[in-house]
Design goal:
single chain, 196 residues, alpha/beta, 5 strands, 13% strand
Amino acid sequence: MRVAIYARVSTGGQTVENQLPKLHTWAQAAGHEVVGEFVDHAISGLKGRSKRPALDRMLKLVAQRKVDVVAATELTRLGRSVAHLAQLAEELRALGVGLFVHSMGLDTSTPAGQLLYGMLSLVAQFERDLLVERTHAGLDRARRQGKRLGRPPLSPWTERRVVDLLNGGATVAATARAAGCCRMTVDKVKRAMHAT
């Protein structure tokens, strides 16, 4: 069988070195041919296909019927949203392509594998929802305790520099670079200038 290997990490500080060898070893032991290795670096599993270039390239290869099985180490590497996982599973199923998830031995070419995939997709979404809920609870607690959230305020000197650059005709991007702050901060100062 022709296998496309997919790996993903969420942040730039992470590596796929733990993912790829497992999948190559599995493919070799099963007598499969690896026809492509697709890696998305520093991209959230919540992002869809359009924001994950390696996933998009892999699915184009799948659509060309050059792949029999897509392999990943964990379900969460493929996605963290039930909608994305369900869409991916349906796309693969419609093309007659199997899905192998190493960490759980999941193989969607079997009816039991298809059922398990559906259940695990729901669990992945549930875990994400819990994470969001805990994050919001922590932020609410911090607000109640009077902690300041978000970016620290601009120093008066930096704010004056931003205003001077904008008044001088600099773009938002150029102002942000020159003043050493982010574009959102410059946009906020610009809106405040126009409001007065």
